[in-house]
Write a structure and sequence with these properties.
Strand order of the largest sheet: 1-2-8-5-3
Distance between the termini: 65 Å
CATH architecture: Orthogonal Bundle
Largest sheet: 5 strands, mixed
Number of strands: 12
Order of helices and strands: HHEEHEHHHEHHHHHHHEEEEHHHEEEE
Strand content: 5-15%
Structural class: alpha+beta
Bound molecules: protoporphyrin IX containing FE
Length: 439
Amino acid sequence: MTTSVLPNPIGTSPSALLYAMRRDPLEFFTTLAREHGDIVRFRLGDHEQDLFLVNHPDYVRDVLVTQDRNFTKWFAVDRIKEVLGDGLFVSEGEFHRRQRRLSQPAFHGERIAAYAEQMVSLAVRLREGWIEGAVIDVCREMNWLAMMIVGSTLFGANVESDAEQIRDALDEILEQFERSILPRADREDFEKALGRIDAAVYRIIQVRRAKSEDRGDLLSMLLLAQDAEGDGGRMSDLQLRDEAMTIFLAGHETSANAMAWTWYLLSQHPEVEEKFHEEINRHLGGRAPRMGDVMELSLTGRIFSEALRLYPPLWAVGRRAIVECQIGSYTIPPGSVVIISSFVTQRDPRWFPEPLLFDPERWQPAARSERPRFSYFPFSAGSRSCLGEAFASTEGVLCLATIGQKWKFRLAAGAPIALQPQLTLRARNGIKMRVERRV
Ligand code: HEM
């Protein structure tokens, strides 16, 4: 086994590094990778924890795929467990594999095809509510849309009356995550916010239980779930709540961000926007899109992929080594934490020349095949990859096409756009845009 000496930000004290990370985590990780290479060891403040930022596609593959059993998940903020409990995002080992197996059928191709119609009809409803010249916050609007889509497709629930409350509660929780890197986040506000989301999730479960019908959606699967190979026991109420909460939150916060950033990027690149409009006109004429159009709307797909490259909603993931591992020629001791940032790697000029340029043509098959597979991983990879990847990709294309048929958006004057890297990559203060009729 060869062991190279790990690059270390020599001369920079852990407290200076902590300060830099708190000030701007995206800038901090980007600089660390660009200045110190594909794997960097560092410590923050007086924490005794060795942290490794891993940036090379081969190392990303090693951690997420080839050696995934050598790692467990790691959360910068343990509070995520207070929200998601022992749901899929958080659970480990055989239990995680079992729960993932139970939920998986709700995400198979034929199920997603069945959700397409609801995705489009909710997008139509949203677009019909806007008026020419109005200023909207596309983050808020996309949040409503993504939440309604997850609620109706996977839970058979109309979450409209809860949407505002859930959104505000989630804002509070995510802000607390951001602040709790600093000491003493406000516990009482956190619990109140969590209580509001909890109440909504329990309400969804109770309504379905009361009807005891099998609608073939995710909630039915969870309610009926019995482990065919195992003890045959039903999931406890608490576990059901944890799984429902996980998919409800993971399934809308991420997609909403991705769609909002896409509208922003299109507004900044009218030449791409024009081609996007041409594609929608050519394929759809005036009719609403359907599942069968998703493959045909190939530029729309490339636009969404490119938006996920520049603004990956889950911009970093963490893993903890449970045994000593060899990543490239480096030895990672057990207990160390490895951080992988899609934001950093996906903006690396070695894989994406002129990385800040929004260029959907990077996603043409020929261009794609020239890049290492793990230079792009907005949905992560391996056994912990996103369960909702196909759902989200379908939703993205269908919603963009449906809304883009009627409207385009332009940044409202005096609305500066700033990244807010919380648990997800949000826009600080939202993205205020003027609604303009296309024709
Ligand atoms: C553009 C939208 C989305 C993005 C960028 C995204 C990204 C991700 C990423 C990066 C992970 C892995 C996190 C890690 O490795 O620590 C993940 C996990 C997960 N995602 Fe997504 N996601 C999206 C949409 C969705 C949707 C729509 C759903 C469900 C409806 C969903 C459900 C999940 C679940 C359940 C997990 C945990 C999987 C496991 O650990 O087994 N996601 N997502």
